[in-house]
Structures are given as structure tokens and as C-alpha cells.
Amino acid sequence: MNTAELSAIARSLVAKSRGILAADESTSTIKKRFDTIKLESTEENRRIYREMLFSAPGAQEYISGVIMYDETLRQKTKDGVPFPIYLAKNGIVPGIKVDTGAKPLAGFPGETITEGLDGLRERLVEYHQLGARFAKWRAVIDIGSGIPNLYAIEANAEGLARYATLCQEAGIVPIVEPEVLMDGAHSLERCEEVTNLVLDRVFARLFAARVSLEGMVLKPNMVVPGKKSPQKSTPEQVAEATLRTLKRQVPAAVPGIAFLSGGQSPVDATQHLSLMNAAGPLPWALTFSYGRALQENALSAWGGKPAGYSSGQQALFVRAKLNGLAAVGAYKRAMESSAA
Ligand code: 13P
Questions:
Q1: Ligand 1 centroid distance, CA of 118 (Å)
Q2: Which of 158, 176, 229, 305 has the most neighbouring CB atoms within 10 Å?
Q3: Using CB atoms within 10 A of its CB, is residue 149 exposed (0-12), middle (13-18) or buried (19+)?
Q4: What's the number of domains the chain is made of?
Q5: Is the CB of 292 under 6 A from ligand 1?
Q6: How far apart are alpha carbons 243 and 259 in whole angstroms?
């Protein structure tokens, strides 16, 4: 695969008014989501839920790509069409999560290292054959007392760089996701400081590993105070701090940045994205790659019941549309009541 083809896929993932649906929850994470609607996490229930999302009428206009988990990439619609084929036919790029999770980092209590490099080259060849054209690898950085240490940041940056080159070798666009968690009690300023350091180290290793920046997408956190922080930030402060950080750290050669939602409410995640785009022009496309912020309402509207199927699809459509507007800076909070 040449870099021009990788770059065309990367640009299509961040095309105007479109963003990514992260539906790559591992089997243990989706079980936690299903527990909230008291639904058993069987392979068939997971298949039904994913088909509901992927076939939501109208949502395709705003969704450029879907990230799947290994099991989902191999599943089919009720009519027997493999999900990656079904999505591609509807103009949506199929994607696959390829890391095997964040594991405790030896020697550094409280810190993690994302694993999954062993055998990755062979897995990527198979994923490409199954139709995947982009991938995701999530590194996790927690903020707490005495953490993160530079070693943990650098080890995770190295993992991201090695993953990204293997993807590009296989003709797959890497989504590079270094997530600074919002779980702690830290301030917005501390989140900004850590996010700057993490992105600085990540781009240093991507460059050293000869990753083609034109053929990747960055998936960062927004700069927000920790959930347990007494500090409350305004949407404008979040947008300003996040943009300041990205402008300092992300080369203009990167075609696009697609945020994770990270535990923000669906409305906050949409509003923050819109404010940033309204502050343009920006050197890269800025869009969404949300999991919870796109799925939360759809999951509860569905409720695991056939009777809720079309309400679930409608709920996904509404959030996809509002985020599509946010990706061009045209979303207003007042649209929430009239959107449904
Ligand atoms: P959230 O938007 O729920 O954070 O999920 C996005 C994702 O893919 C995390 O890896």
C-alpha cells in the first residue's frame, strides 16, 4: 500500500460533517454496558445491538467509519452479510481495535502499558482480508499522586509508534489513541500539562518510527478537569485549552483529529467539539470518534427489546447528526430539544 492510498482513507475518515462510531467495546466492557439495561451479554445480543447501530437509517450520512471488536468484525447482519462488507457498501469504512488492553506496567504501580504487539503483523493481514481499512490502539495515561511517570508515557508512545508502522505496512490506517483519563481529581491545568507531554512524546516516537503522518488519525482526549475535581470548567475553557494543546503538539501533516468522549456527557462532548470548530480555521479536520457519547442514548432507548429497536436507531441518528453539525462548528445546545 502506498502512502497516497493510506492518506485517502485517513482523509475520508475525517471528511466534512462526518466522524467515527467507536463500537469496539471488548466482551467484558459491553457486558458492563448491557448490565445497565439488564440484558444478558450473549454473542447474539451483541450482534443484534451492533446491527441496530450500523443500520440506523440516516446515520450513515454522518458516520465515516466504525471501529469494531474482533468478534464483531466476524459477525453478520441477520441477512447473512458480514458487517465489514455491509458497512463498506453503505459508504462506511470498517475499522478494528487491535490492542489487547492496558495491563499493569511492571515497576510502576498505578500505571499501565498497552499490549498487543506480538503477532500483530499476522493479525493485520487477516483483518485486511476481512475488510478492515483502519485500526485503533489505545494507550492509557492516568493522572494521580506521583503519576504519570515519564517512563510510562514513553513506553506507551513506543507501543503506539510500533503499532502504527505495522498498520501502515499492512495498508491499514492507524488511529493513534493516547488517552489521558478524566477519572482523577486533577485540575484542567494539570490535564493540559500532561496531555502536552504525552502528545510531544507520541509524535517524537511516530517520527522516529517513520510513520507517515499523512496516513494516520489522532484520537486524543479533550483537556478537561478530572471528574473528582472540585473545579468546574466552562465549555469555552475546555475548547480553548484543548485547541491550544493540539496546536502546540500536532503537526499540520496529520489530516485529522477525532476525539474520544472519555466519560463526558453526550451533550458536553458535542458542544466542546462544536466550539473548537467554530474557532477555526484549523490546520487539521477536527471531528468525533465517540463510543459512549454516541451510544448512551441509543442503548437506553433500545433497552434490549425488539420494541425499542427503531427508537434506539433514532437516538443514534440524532447524536450522529448533532455531532456532524459540531464537526463544522454549527451545533447549538438549543438544538437538543428539537433534534428528536
Ligand atoms: P469513549 O468515547 O466512550 O471514550 O470511547 C472511545 C474509545 O474508542 C475509547 O477507546
A1: 24
A2: 176
A3: middle
A4: 1
A5: yes
A6: 12
Q: What CATH code is carried by the domain that includes residue 241?
A: 3.20.20.70
Beta partners for residue 135, in sequence order: 96, 174
- The C-alpha cell 491550544 sits at 244
Q: Which residues pair with 20 in a beta bridge?
A: 65, 289
177, 179, 192, 296: which one is catalytic?
Answer: 177
Specify the pTM.
0.98
Residue 73 sits in which domain range?
3-337
pLDDT digits (tens), the chain, 340 positions = 589 999 999 999 999 999 999 999 999 999 999 999 999 999 999 999 999 999 999 999 999 999 999 999 999 999 999 999 999 999 999 999 999 999 999 999 999 999 999 999 999 999 999 999 999 999 999 999 999 999 999 999 999 999 999 999 999 999 999 999 999 999 999 999 999 999 999 999 999 999 999 999 999 999 999 999 999 999 999 999 999 999 999 999 999 999 999 999 999 999 999 999 999 999 999 999 999 999 999 999 999 999 999 999 999 999 999 999 999 999 999 999 876 6
